[in-house]
Predict the 3D structure of the following.
Amino acid sequence: MELIRRAALSGIVVGVVGVIVLFLANPFSGTPTPSMDEDFTPVAPVLIPAAGLASGHGLGAEDAPVVLTVWTDYQCPICGTWGNGVEPVLYERYITDGELRIEHRHYAFLGEESFTAAVGAECAAGQGKFWAFHSYLFTNQNSENQGAFSAGRLRKIAEASGQDLAIWDTCIADPAVRAEIEADAEEAMSLGITGTPTLVIGDWMESGIPAPEDLYARIDEALGN
Amino acid sequence: MPRAHRISALVSAVGVAISVYLLSIRLIGVPAICGPALGPFGGCSKVEASAWSSIGPIPVAAIGVVGSALLLVATIIHARTRREEVLAVWLFAALVGAAVEIGLIAIQAFLIGAWCVWCLLYGSTVLIGAATVISVVRSYARESRDLTRPPR
């Protein structure tokens, strides 16, 4: 019975330690993983915004009456559903009419490739082509930390999304850009954001993708409709 | 196979199936049967999107697959061999799993503020499995006492 007692005691101790690790799960503990095939042609996104509707880190008119801020991680599959599925619908429904602007914020927490992808997006923003790069990232997601956003593949995405590669290459090596992404993640945590995508309109904040009618109701309410 | 072992094997097999399903939603985009239609338990996308759905690069569902598979194997081997070492491993894994599941349920309740029906069903399999191994350990302890008691 001594062996059983030891197993019970160690099981309880390890279990409690496991719970503590879960509660304190460090979002920055991801490690780089081997690259997948570098020889790929990025798939183009469905949504190609009209001229003037993609500026800064946002999609939509800069003076739109409602701003929807979205915190995402480029490796998060549900963020992919948001970027590939929901944003095009909102674009047709609200953005082309000038009623809504979607502002993107980075919350990279799923591992090293989340950071490298976000750094690449920031470097695209520096060239005024953030949204194209951002959309390409979501369209070309492929599991987490398996090389989908390796340096080589991100460069292909940069090329496909129309970046000046010489400028982009210099930018991604700048540690200050990475520091910006880390600062964004810290800001997200300080706001109490615990997952992605997290949507914010004014005082309303919700993680995950709401049912379409609930999201439309939120936007309509903010529009005063 | 005794009843406790049958129950443990069944719930562990269900646990493996649920965690494989949750892992496939995350890794290969299998559609999640969840959402507002399930009322308060339809918060799967919110739970899956949370920082607690993975520990670093390892999805929690992957840990669930390994844990439930270990419980299943330990149950079957113990049912056949009745070896104390196997019972110790089974008890250890079940207690670790139960503690972590209680933690995950608390995280859904207090930190994420949403319930995922599949996560709760998975948690139930682990907690039922832990209850069965505890009942097996109690029987084993009774038998050990009876064997060591001097005859009258």
The mean pLDDT of chain A is 88. The interface with chain B takes residues 1, 3-4, 6-8, 10-12, 14-16, 18-19, 21-23, 25-27, 29-31, 33, 76-79, 109-111, 143-145, 194-198, 206-209, 211, 214 of chain A (CB under 8 Å).
